[in-house]
Structure formats: C-alpha cells, structure tokens
Amino acid sequence: MLELYDGALNVPEILNRWYAEESDNNYGAYIPFVGTVREEDGIEGLSFDVYEPILTSWFEAWVAKAAPLGATLKMAHSRGDVLVHESSYIAAVFSPKRRVALETIDAFVEDFKASAPIWKYDLKNGERLYARDRSTPIEGSGLLGGKS
After folding, report:
1. pLDDT tens sequence across 106-119
2. Closest among 146, 19, 1, 10 to 78, alpha carbons compared
3. 3-class secondary structure, 91
4. Distance CA 35, CA 43 (A)
5. In terms of pLDDT, which residue wins out, 144 or 1?
6. 3-state SS assignment for residue 93
7. In this structure, is residue 141 part of a structural domain?
8. Number of structural domains the chain divides into
C-alpha cells in the first residue's frame, strides 16, 4: 500500500491504522521507519515534488520482491511542504519472521533514498530552494536527476 499526502504525515494515525489492518495476519514482526525533517542550515522545512507513475512502479516492484518472503510493505510520503520536526516519510514491513522484516526495511529505505522519484526543496526565508547538495540523482533520469 502506497499512500501520498499533502503536507506532513500524521504518524500516530498512519502507524495505528496499518497495525490494525495487519493485526490478524499472523505476522511475527512489524517494523516501521519514520523519517522526520531535521533542523539544519537554517531551514524552516522541506518541500517535496513526487512523480507518482514512477514511484508507484518502483513501489510495486518492491511489493513483488517482498511477497515470496511472506512480507507486506506499506509506505506513506508527503507532497508539498513539511516543517522541521514533522514527518515526511513512513515505511513499514510486516513479516512472519523478524530477520526478514529487519533486512527488508533496511534495503527498502536505502533503495528509496537512491531510487524514488521525489525531489526535495529547502524552505528557507520564505523561499523554496532546490536541495541539490542533499539530493540523489536517479540513474538514467537525465534532466530529472538534477545533473547539469
């Protein structure tokens, strides 16, 4: 399940709902990852642009990879502005075995940072500035990768 929201994520609501949705599925592990916007370089927050068709395809490939392991993946991400100390990203893995969940959440979050078509902007002094130095170009993306 991939969920996109405008603005900051409501972490307690999302995590509790996901837990309730999967609580009867006999999973032995539920491992969430919550990403929050941290204060650095005087930013007021971050803003995100999401290219949904590629993100959906990327996420569906991960769901297919997790299925033979008996694991279920869920992810939520923000579009638009998210202020410092608010959450912009939540991922979770449900699995019968803890090792599968631990390894899958680690690989999933790392691949998300490297491959997801989401562009990050700093919110600073009322402006939205592309965060090139903290962005990872997507392989094969050409102009979308932010290289010049």
Report:
1. 999 999 999 999 99
2. 10
3. strand
4. 16
5. 1
6. strand
7. no
8. 1
Both tokens assigned to 112: 């998300």
* pTM of the predicted protein model: 0.87
Residue 67 DSSP one-character state = G
Averaged confidence pLDDT in the chain: 91
CATH classification of the domain holding 37: 3.90.1170.40
The boundaries of the domain holding residue 35 are: 2-136
Residue 102's Cβ-count burial label (10 Å; 0-12, 13-18, 19+) is: middle
Alpha-carbon distances, residue 130 vs 9, 11, 53, 109, 123 (angstroms): 21, 26, 22, 22, 9
Residue 118: strand pairing partners = 50
What would the two tokens of residue 135 be? 């962005």
Let me know how long the chain is: 148
